[in-house]
Amino acid sequence: MAKERRRAVLELLQRPGNTRCADCGSPDPDWASYTLGVFICLSCSGIHRNIPQVSKVKSVRLDAWEEAQVEFMASHGNDAARDMYESKVPPFYYRPTFSDCQLLREQWIRAKYERQEFTHPDKQEPYSAGYREGFLWKRGRDNGQFLSRKFVLTEREGSLKYFNRSDAKEPKAVMKIEHLNATFQPAKIGHPHGLQVTYLKDNSTRNIFVYHEDGKEIVDWFNALRAARFHYLQVAFPGASDADLVPKLSRNYLKEGYMEKTGPKQTEGFRKRWFTMDDRRLMYFKDPLDAFARGEVFIGSRESGYTVLDGLPPSTQGHHWPHGITIVTPERRFLLACETETEQRAWVEAFRKVVDRPMLPQEYAVEAHFKHKP
């Protein structure tokens, strides 16, 4: 009997909708919440275990199943749960995948099942109201210390501001929603709730690094920023569909890591720098947590004269790392070197994805700015 019940659960796993984790979309889930009726992956099952008042989990393959539990799973399943628990997810709300950090996945699962934010839209106030203020720990630009700072997001003004003192009249910085990006960077920032916010200041990228001890708070901030961007873009592109706008709300970096680089004359030695590929902007920093990039390189498309080559010109000297990359732009060549062949391949793939993509009209304006930089 026990074998038959387990076989019945395994058969349910093959139904359309159940072949991917109900929460992160990971293929071939082999755990289940027998109180919610969903099939989930090992990683998400760990999060479900932390909310036992809502979800109780079992291994599909290893645990014993009772008849009533099998029947419950049969009458529910991932599609039915999605219809119920995700019926009112705002279009701007970030739906994490299996490649996202633990915090985003945990708060998504808690929001769905524990807080039921997507069945009761009044619970979405913290990120959908168009205004949010509160305190976040912000890394100091020069000393690297995290200090509590007041942040204010106002959709009406189209800005995120922060203040050095809670009673300060003037903000320390005003970040325009139009040029804002936010992405979780727990490893880089050294905190599981670490969020990197970037904005353009005088057309150069400026980074700030923040966190909040409460996971729900920082994810609410993240989704509030996405909501503000969504409403800004709806006005800026009145004919665009939600599906067109959602990918533009926030973006993860295409690739980050250390490489060596040399200067424009290619006569000086190579120096180790931290590189970030953010869409078409390749930025390099002395330290991963620097506020400003030491330099930025625009990576255009193949039609505009940009190519990426394996290796370095034969005469190149001064690099310590053996695996070279040459980026050819209409103006000059950029010579880079990676420590391992694996890293080199990953960077070349990231660059080629960008180079192979045709440029959008607004990207030509960005390219023109880079060309006229002093």
Overall shape: globular
Order of helices and strands: HEEHEHHHHEEEEEHEEHHEEEEEEEHH
CATH architecture heading of the largest domain: Roll
- Low-confidence spans: pLDDT under 50, at least 5 residues? none
Distance between the termini: 77 Å
Number of helices: 11
CATH superfamily of the largest domain, please? Pleckstrin-homology domain (PH domain)/Phosphotyrosine-binding domain (PTB)
Strand order, biggest sheet?
7-6-5-4-10-9-8
Let me know the largest β-sheet: 7 strands, antiparallel
Task: From the 3D structure, determine the CATH topology of the largest domain.
Answer: PH-domain like
Give a structural overview.
- With 374 residues, the protein is an alpha+beta fold.
- The chain has three domains: 1-86, Arf GTPase activating protein (Annexin V, domain 1); 124-248, PH-domain like; 255-372, Pleckstrin-homology domain (PH domain)/Phosphotyrosine-binding domain (PTB) (PH-domain like, Roll), CATH 2.30.29.
- The protein is built from eleven helices and 17 strands.
- The chain has helices spanning 2-13, 42-49, 67-75, 78-85, 102-114, 125-128, 186-189, 215-236, 242-245, 341-355, 361-371; strands at residues 31-33, 38-40, 57-59, 131-139, 146-154, 159-163, 173-176, 181-184, 195-201, 204-211, 255-261, 271-278, 281-285, 295-298, 307-310, 323-328, 333-338.
- The strands form three sheets. It has a seven-stranded antiparallel β-sheet with strand order 7-6-5-4-10-9-8.
- A hairpin with a 2-residue loop joins strand 9 (195-201) and strand 10.
- Helix 1 runs parallel beside helix 3 (67-75).
- The radius of gyration is 24 Å and the shape is globular.
- The model has no long low-confidence stretch (mean pLDDT 93).
